[in-house]
Amino acid sequence: MPKGTALKDLEFSITLNDAGLIETSSKSFSAILQWKDVDVFRRPLSFLFPPDAHGRVDRLVASKTIMENVVFPSVPVRFKPGGFINFDMKMKEMSAGKRHLEFYKPGGASVNKNESSQSNTDMYSFFNFVERLLDSPFDGDLDMTMIEVEALRDEMLSEEEKKAVRNEVEENLKTHAVGGELGQLDEASYGLIVSGGFDEEAFEAELVKVAENLDIDPALMGIRSANVTIDDRDLEPETLRTALSHSRGLFVGEVEGDMAALESLTAVVDGVNHNRNLVLDAIKKYQFRISERLMMDNVASISVAALQQGKVNIDGRLRLPDEIIVLPDHPDIALEHDLAQLDEFSRVRAHRKAEDQDRPDFYELCRSCLVQDAFLGGLKDILDRHSLPAEKLGFRLKGMPPSKRGGPHWQAAKSLIEAGHPVWLDRFGDAVTDPSLYDFLQGGYVELPAEILSRLSNHFDGADIMSALIEKWQANSVGVLMVDLKNIKLKTLAQEMGVRLSVLDSP
């Protein structure tokens, strides 16, 4: 696969004032496009672009975030005698709110190799990048390509080998991404925006060479890709973000569906709306129920609590809502679903045998409910109506942001704890950077994620580090447990490190 080339020679440049109006232009601007300075002075930048790009250009100029070093390929610029000429374009921030635009001959649209290379970002930063890119003047074809390299997940490779593979994969993908920007979808997957398609076979051939150079079996690379054509550049930002998030969920297997059938962004949006309606209809028709999974003390061979997961009946099959939609992206559905499930569960729980009333239950709550005032109020009404003590109803909160970052989710979790509810988090690693979590979670639980366990198990001191952390959690009255560890070797390792609690597999 050919590597991306550096930008060609600069053709002309334009400077915008702090109001986004054209202030100066280079001499070559007039020579190439045949506009005089007086023709464009104090004109909005959109004057130089096609009418259907004016909205995007105005948003780009108004944006406070500049995509430094991002190359917009084949941007159409107005030629005075008529028509448009395509150039590659870059935008830079200047002092006092001014902006400098540089235009190059098309064909070298990649990160300039003389400049520092951008590192890959998390998926949310990547989605922000896509949103800004769609607001840009670029009018060429755009596709979001998602790539999975199985070697980055393979347990047969050491962490050193994975790091070497990762460096090669990222360097290669950046040469094909518009602006050299990659999004990290999960530990083995990336997202990138491409113009003009992505050649998976050529990429796979490149990785075969990488494997040979690193003395790794090429069969372990395991390339898989999917492509989503961005066929609507005017989606509302929230709709765009939801569609991108849903596409990512489909690709990495967190959301059920046929990825091959969702070839365009509008098809993804239609799929999201369809799945929303499936969940809402199930709730309205009372086609939902709680699925129970016991938490076991494997040393004492007794159950100490239970995880309650709310499921809906979709086409005759009970599923978690986030198996078909990315539930945190739909706070309205999450709120209606979780309150309905909690009300029904609390009603049924009140009729348990006396000996089963003492066992605490943990409901798996969507984190988007936490930050809605209506949830805390609705929860209190449910507890009062069914005479359920708060200490008997805990909550499993998945996907919380890092604790040191704080924010509304952590404030809401604190409110739950102050109300007497035990809390169960999946942020095991936060104990390293935020010891205050020991007090925060007293009487609750923290789970040991498979990716942390796998990563540290390959480290020389990994097992000792994990054992010390587990001992610290437990000494502070916080239970450590394992959930959905499919790998027998990791399960055994967790037990050897002192994890005695586990949640039975989903029925």
Sheet with the most strands: spatial strand order: 11-12-14-15-16-17-18-19
The largest pleated sheet is described as: 8 strands, mixed, barrel
State the end-to-end CA separation.
46 Å
Low-confidence stretches: 1-6, 109-118
What is the multimeric organization of the chains shown? Answer: single chain
CA gyration radius, whole angstroms? 27 Å
Q: How would you characterize the overall build of this protein?
A:
The chain is α/β, with parallel strands linked by helices and 507 residues long. Helices cover 37% and strands 22% of the residues. It contains 18 helices and 19 strands. The protein has helices at 27-33, 37-40, 54-62, 123-134, 159-174, 200-213, 237-252, 265-284, 331-349, 354-357, 367-370, 373-386, 408-418, 430-433, 437-440, 450-457, 462-475, 488-496; strands spanning 10-16, 22-25, 72-78, 84-93, 99-104, 121-122, 143-149, 182-186, 189-194, 223-229, 288-297, 302-314, 317-319, 361-365, 393-397, 423-425, 445-447, 479-482, 501-503. It has an eight-stranded mixed barrel, surrounded by four helices. Helix 4 packs across helix 7 (237-252). The radius of gyration is 27 Å and the shape is globular. The model is unreliable at 1-6 and 109-118 (pLDDT under 50).
Brief synopsis:
With 507 residues, this protein is of the alpha/beta class. 37% of the residues lie in helices and 22% in strands.
